[in-house]
Amino acid sequence: MSVIAGAGVGDGPAPDAPHVLDNPALASLTGPHARFAERRGRVLRYPADVSPWLALPDEPVARDWADLAALAGPGAEIPLAGYCGEVPDGWEITFRIDGVQFVDDGLAAAPDAEAVRLGPADVPEMLDLVARTRPGPFLPRTVELGTYLGIRREGALVAMAGERLHPPGWTEISAVCTDPAARGEGLATRLILAVAHGIRERGETPFLHTSAQNTGAIRLYESLGFRLRRRTAFLAARAPERLADGRVAVPVA
Fold first, then answer.
1. What is the per-residue pLDDT across 117-141, written as a single tens digit (0 to 9) for each?
2. What span, in angstroms and rounded, lies between the C-alpha atoms of 164 and 205?
3. Phi, psi values for residue 173, rounded to 5°
4. Residue 141: exposed, middle, or buried by beta-carbon count in 10 A (0-12, 13-18, 19+)?
């Protein structure tokens, strides 16, 4: 079993040589994002107001599933991005969609004169833009994960993009969204390239995820110079009310 499972695409490490992007949440929380890590046994997660991502070990065993249930709480719905193995008895898959992982393969990354750095004071506007455009999870403290850039028109935030997972040597571009009234101006493209420029300036490589059904986004990413690295999955599972040994899965504070 693998937390990020699926068919590799193109050249890459052999199956017996895991890549940090195969389990990017684990690589992030044990690496550059270790300061965010909440841990129980071998299971890690981000604080609930930072990111919904959790990290199972590459080969989870019964003890890891019990720790995951305890970490999240009884009956909690837990995102298991990329996990393609079987879930234990008592767990229920509640959501699943095929996904893809893209990596920088020649982006024309460049700063953007109109892009401004966003911070904690901008979070209410960022949350409002996310609520209207639904690019994926963005929470009150997600902005702490890395650099977020935005474009304003007449003072209003109309587009943004930023950094999420941070495995060693890599940074994920995420929360790419544009207000419907400002679409068609290429703002998303400009912000992706600007965020990628900052990542490259640190000597790291940009990557990103999207739904395999999001053909418009896939065409955009490929046109910009991203290459499909891996097919994956986004799913969620509901933890049992009680663990296999009958104990209540008491959440960790």
1. 999 999 999 999 999 999 989 999 9
2. 13
3. -90, 130
4. middle
